[in-house]
Amino acid sequence: MKSSAARPLPTRLATAVIVLPLLLTACGSDPDDQVGADGKVVITVAMDSGLEKAAIDAFTKRAEQFEAANTDIDVRTQEYTWTAASFTAQLAGGTIPDVFTVPFTDGRGLIERKQIADVGEQIAQLPYAAKLNPNVAKAGQAADGKQWAVPIAAYGQALHYNRTLFTQAGLDPDKPPTTWAEVRSAAKQITERTGQAGYAQMTSGNTGGWILTTLDYAFGGRIEKITGDQAEATVDTPEMAEVLDTLRAMRWEDNSMGANFLYDWAGINQDFAAGRIGMYVSGGGNYGNLVTQNGLKAEDYGVAALPLADKPDAGVLGGGTLAVVSPKIGERSKEAAVKWIDFYYMGKLTDQEAAVADARTLAETDQPVGVPTLPVVDRATYDQAREWTAQYVNVPLDQMTPYTAKMFDQPLVTEPTRSTQDVYKILDQTVQTLFTDRSADVPALLAKADAEVQAQIGRG
Amino acid sequence: MRRGGLSTLVFLLPLLLVFGFFSWAPIVQSVVMSFQRTNLVGPVEFVGLDNFAQVLADPLLWTALRNTVWFAVLALLFGYPLPLLAAVLISEVRHRKGLFSALAYLPVVIPPVVAVLLWKFFYDAGPTGVFNTVLGWVGLGPWQWLQDPGSAMPALVLEATWAAAGGTVIIYLAALAGVPADLYEAAEIDGSGIWRKVWHVTLPRLRGVLLVTFILQIIGTAQVFLEPFLFTGGGPANSTTTLLLLIYDYAFANSLGGDYGAATALSLMLAAVLALFSTAYFRLTRSWSTS
């Protein structure tokens, strides 16, 4: 063996050339502010991807208004929509915007792993910090109660339906189903009379588990039971069996679920907006996405409260969105990031001037104003904000009455807290098997899912 | 590098830097990462062989392996002979050979994602889907295509074969052009028809190319990702989850930071198996390809 000193120069140089890039790529750097030549701090903010031009114009206008009010900040927009796969890749790759949004389910985990910045001090300075709805605020809090992320929207699941298909099928669009038996019969009637899917359901990209969990809650079940540090899977229950039996009957006996059993969120929204689906379950505030990204015709749209079984534990799965800040930016950028969150996401919920400015901008660009959501601040502030913007509301509120009349009365149940996405992924397979294998054995499916969820949450 | 080593290195330097940054560094980092637990944001923990043990204990690994082998077998059955057949037929055509070559190559020009979206329309499982409409004309269907665990993988192979065959056809056409014409003339004088010429002249002369395309096909199919990712996401019920898709899922399916250690561990195992297979293959077939 030769010593390194004995190796010829070219060999040593070649070694250096190979090793140097490894060292360089392995090097990290401390969070730093990005400052432009004009001294302004530059932040990149998330804008929903795939927006129609009018929606992009509205967003750009809001960014300009923010810059005018904050002359030391330069805002740059970046298209971003949260998906489990792209989010983790972007975060790891350092291409996530400085301000972005994540679902409630990820808040606590991101905080524990320090994958988002601690902006608790800046959030505490916001005038409405103490007015946040405590039930939703905890999704963005660390274990010590410090608020790392700002809840900007909350939702309860709802039953979206196509009024035009209802009419064509001879159903009354003003009287949507209020029980799952009615959902089943309406779906059958829609398919028989229009040829479209009466009822469709998401099944892939972890959304299958999300919706299956929603139905389990609606039938009175729960996915997991947490006692102290112990987590027990409760997938294999009579409630979940009832859910699967109902779905199996709709799929295999009524044939009322169409021909696509690999829907994810984007796909099902697209097909619903295109008039190929009679009913589906998703977040109650989904109208905005359906219009701005999928070209839904307003007259087609209807939304109803999710039918709940007559059981004491039956409830509506609730969730929401958190605005968070990248951990890879400096202190000045963090200040600017929280200012943006305050301006863009929260101002319209808490400040009359901001609420009116936001609603006016959206209305001028034909973007939806007045989509029903659950309050992220206290109810009084929420109601007041709705009053401030009442004159700009342009969504078909009448068609949403079956939902809005009940949305505050339905018991809201949070999503599973342990390994949520992993649990949903396991349940994806359960519902895919049910929909694609006529001979699927429900008890066996449930036993398998229960064991897998137990193994997952036991680890998690 | 015995003479003028330094000047040789200077000329090599740009290439070494490019490969160093974009090829070798990621490979070495992957090897290192397979022994770590990291979310690429927080602190890194060395875990020895835990990632490998975790992957080997995952029941989904064997499902993915089975699916990948199934894809490879189907792709070999349909995707391997088809380009050869097409190339032989095109080479036999006397007029408009260029046009037929271009038509065969056309699918390769279509961006893969566009091709998949196109085929999604074809595979629409409703009675109005393109394929089901055609089947309906002869009283068949509607078939479930991607929506059935049994037919999903063959459907992926069909599209993959359509998409990739053109490139191989061009390689075979180039190789066929190198077959001396007098061999065919001699065969014709001996009374050979087209199939006897193919069997006794074409295939033996293409043996070297066929052996290379065979191993390339095996390696390519072992790494199949695009079709299951875009068509089915691994469904229905994991029936199209392949090894590469499993690696992707390890790394990216959980939004709270993927299991990059498990993903790189499985990547390394796959690379090692393919390297061993390729070595054995070339050793076993050395005498065939050079005779």
UniProtKB/TrEMBL annotation, chain A:
Keywords: Signal. InterPro entries: Bact_solute-bd_prot1, SBP. Residues 1-26 form the signal peptide. It comes from Saccharothrix carnea. This is ABC-type glycerol-3-phosphate transport system substrate-binding protein. The keyword Nucleotide-binding does not apply.
Automatic annotation (TrEMBL), chain B:
One of its GO terms (cellular component) is plasma membrane. One of its GO terms (biological process) is transmembrane transport. It is found in: Cell membrane. Coiled coil: none annotated. It holds the Pfam family BPD_transp_1. Residues 65-281 form the ABC transmembrane type-1 domain. It is a multi-pass membrane protein. This is Multiple sugar transport system permease protein.
